[in-house]
Each structure stands twice: as C-alpha cells, then as structure tokens.
Design a protein that fits this description.
Elements (H helix, E strand, L loop, with lengths): L4 E4 L6 E2 L1 H14 L7 H7 L3 H11 L8 H18 L5 E2 L3 H10 L3 E5 L4 H10 L8 E3 L12 H10 L6 E5 L2 H9 L4 E3 L17 E2 L3 H13 L2
Parallel strand pairs: 1-4, 1-6, 4-5, 6-7, 7-8
Antiparallel strand pairs: 2-3
Bound molecules: 2-phosphoglycolic acid (PGA).
2-phosphoglycolic acid binds next to helix 3.
Length: 226
C-alpha cells in the first residue's frame, strides 16, 4: 500500500532541543541547590516525556522516581524555566526543512507525534516556523498514555483519516519504533537524535535514513516509480 501520511517525532528528529531542555533542567537544579548536568547526560534522559526527564535529572537514574514532594516542586520549577527557554537554542538538523517542503509539495499529509507536552510543542513549532507543515499535532499529554504506547500514533492516524499501513513514522528512538510498530505503522529511524543512550543500529525498525530530506526523496521515489 502506498504511503500517504508521515508522522514525525519532534525532539531529536526535527529539532536538536537538548540545549533548551538542559538549560531548563540546570536552572531547576540550581534553584534546588543540586549539581548541574552536562548536555550529554540530559540527552540520555530525553524520550519518555517531561515527567521522566525531571525524575531522571533528580535521581540520576533512568527508572527511579524522586519523592512526590521533591518531584512536584522540581516539575513546577522546570516548567517555569522551560516556558521561557523553549526554542531559544533549538536548531534544525540538516535536511529537515528541505524534507518537509518536499513532502508537503508532493501531497503527503504530515503530523507531529511527540512526547513533549502540548503547551511546549505548539510554541516550539510556531517559533521555529514549521507549524504550518502539520495538519495534526499529538503531544505527550494529548492521549492518556505516551509513546512507546501505540495510542498517540493511532490517534494521529485517525485525525489524519489514514490507515496505519498507509502511514510512515520517522523518529530517533525506540519509543517511536515501538509505538509505531504496535500501531501497525512502519517506522524509519534517524541516527543523530536521542535514543536513551543507545545506537539506532541496535533498535528494531523498518529502515534507517540519514536525513529527513533523504527520507522524503525515498518516499517520493516509491510513489512515482512504475
Ligand atoms: O519529550 C520527550 O521526552 C521527547 O519528545 P519526542 O517524543 O519528541 O522525542
């Protein structure tokens, strides 16, 4: 079946957002009298939403949770900082704008399916000037559960009016490939983003592409080939 729609992950796929995420994490840690973290460490903590980012930054563990009191204080503080910082130092990866333009021009329906909360996703897409490419934006709090659960991917397909088998997900992590595959959506991964410290080459997916421009060229090629 031909692909008619493309779902994009945001952090680590369209935009290198760790400079902003880490700045907000470190402003929060300083306010709480805790040691700051490197951008490399924060990059490993990104992927399963803001709650996990804050808990991981407080505990230094991928799975442990801070006490409910500390977590509540830290989350409110992080949100406050990130509201002001979001988009200031985020940069496009090579080929993103070119790839989005090619796909839009070729008539693909485009959506964002991110674990970033909606209140931060919409301003970031607006500030970086790419909001107009997307018919649908599903954030980390749009559905009751986030990626790697398939629900956000299924929700995006429903809103776009496309079957999962006519849809492709493009992401940077195991959270994207697990969510997509459980929804019956094929998934291509990019090697440059945040995969919780692992290589995409060790991650089960349906293909690896170097840039979104390359992904767009491949998709357009499949469509026009006899
Ligand atoms: O907010 C996160 O943890 C990551 O968001 P993403 O789903 O766009 O990678």
């Amino acid at each position: 079946m031909t692909i008619q729609a493309v779902l994009f992950d945001l952090d680590g796929t369209l935009l290198h957002t760790v400079p902003d995420l880490a700045a907000a994490v470190n402003a929060m840690l300083v306010d709480l009298g805790k040691p700051v973290l490197s951008e490399e460490t924060v990059a490993v903590y990104v992927g399963k939403g803001a709650e996990n980012l804050v808990n991981r930054s407080l505990t230094g563990s991928m799975t442990e949770k801070a006490s409910p009191e500390l977590y509540a204080q830290a989350m409110a503080n992080w949100q406050n900082h990130y509201t002001h910082i979001n988009g200031n130092h985020s940069v496009f990866y090579d080929g993103v704008k070119e790839g989005l333009a090619l796909l839009k021009q070729a008539g693909f329906k485009l959506a964002v399916v991110t674990n970033k909360p909606e209140r931060f996703t919409h301003p970031l897409l607006e500030r970086t000037g790419i909001a107009h490419y997307f018919e649908v934006v599903v954030g980390g709090d749009t559905c009751p559960v986030k990626k790697p659960d398939p629900m956000p991917v299924q929700h995006a397909c429903r809103l776009l009016g496309v079957e999962p088998a006519q849809t492709l997900m493009i992401g940077d992590s195991v959270n994207d490939s697990l969510a997509a595959n459980a929804a019956g959506v094929p998934c291509w991964l990019l090697p440059y983003g945040y995969n919780e410290g692992r290589s995409v080459h060790e991650t089960q997916c349906d293909g690896i592409v170097n840039t979104i421009e390359e992904a767009a060229q491949r998709l357009i090629g499949t469509r026009t080939s006899p």
